[in-house]
Specification:
8% strand; alpha+beta; Alpha-Beta Plaits
Length: 304
Amino acid sequence: MKMKISTFGYTIKQGIKNIWTNKMFSIASIATMAACIFMFGMFYAIVANFQHVVKDVESSVAITVFFDEGTTQDEIDEIGQKIAMRPEVSSFNFVSADEAWAEYKLEYFDGDEAAAASFGSDNPLSDKANYEIYMEDISQQSSLVSYLEGQDHISKVRQSEMVANTLTDFNRLVSIVSAVIIVILICVAVFLISNTVRTGIAVRREEIGIMKMIGATDFFVRAPFIVEGILIGLIGAVIPLCILYAMYGKIITYVASRFGFLNNLLTFLPVQTVFEILVPVGLILGVGIGYIGSKATVHKHINV
């Protein structure tokens, strides 16, 4: 156990020493890693807020279900029970004929109450009782509409097909662009960390050869370089995450105070919501990229 602890301490010490010995390459790798993680964090924060706005829009898009003439309240309630069991549905509410007429008057007769009063007690929307159905994922609208159109006592299903298709396509585009950018950033960071570790190997090649000659294991020789890559990745992730954390809150406050009209159009995700995902993902990316870059380089170049 003591030997294992000693070996672990030696590995960490040599990893740090390698970083210090190749200061210029290490600083360049850390800076590049920090830039990559910073760009990833910025992009993630923007995308997360866009998706939050889109989700708000999705949750406000309703499917409206109208009933056949003469449909009883019991039959309407039965339809409501079936709707409640559908996995696509997040919420729904029943709008009676009287409520439909009251909403119509408010929207179309505002300022012309005399015209609305001319209908007296007659309700021209007496057959327009309906269910308003809301979904979490607008891409599932078509499957829900198909199900509803096949049910008894339903005369019409009104949907916002163009809105649904636009939101679905936008979400798909954001996902594709996100994946491409992340892959590019990872490739750049792996390349630079590999160069740094390769330089360290070249500088210590003679020392590595001596260590192998006196019986040092492959793990004992390679481990410090892998630790070097991991530390570079970790440092390169922590720095931009701290900067982003400080910036995000200030940017939200600035936008809210400078562009007050946007408060009615969109709401930003709070700092905690964004960074409870961004911090672990950023650290895992940094450490993972450092490990992969150094591991691949060590495996390729240490053959003494």
